[in-house]
């Protein structure tokens, strides 16, 4: 996946980190992520676990900036437990694409 030149520097940094830790042809797992390596990015990212049959996502960690924006705590819980169904449908589609393609989105 190519990141556009006009992408925010933090997006470029996270993409570079993702590529450096991802096993060949696979998605990086939590065992590959060292929060120290991306400490400045943590407030703006979330870490999700993918569960299958049916495909659903567990919110393991949600950055403080994301929680500030949402106005509530989002860490720990199923993705669809909180939020508007229409918005979450788009998020679920994007996350499903990540699982299928094994590329960041």
Would you kindly provide a brief summary of this structure?
It is built from 3 helices and 2 strands.
Distance between the termini: 9 Å
Beta-strand content bin: 5-15%
Put simply, the count of helices is 3
Number of domains: 1
Mean pLDDT: 86
Compute the gyration radius: what is it?
14 Å
Which structural class do you get from the secondary structure elements?
A: alpha+beta
What portion of residues is helical? Answer: 25-40%
Per DSSP E runs of 2 or more residues, the count of β-strands stands at 2
- What order do the helices and strands follow? HEEHH
Sheet with the most strands, sense and barrel status: 2 strands, antiparallel
* Largest sheet strand order: 1-2
Q: Which spans of ≥5 residues are poorly predicted at pLDDT below 50?
A: none
Outline type: globular
Fold and architecture overview:
With 105 residues, this protein is an alpha+beta fold. It has one domain. The protein has three helices and two strands, in the order H-E-E-H-H. The protein has a two-stranded antiparallel ribbon. Strand 1 and strand 2 form a beta hairpin. The protein is globular. The N and C termini lie close together (9 Å). 2% of the residues are buried.
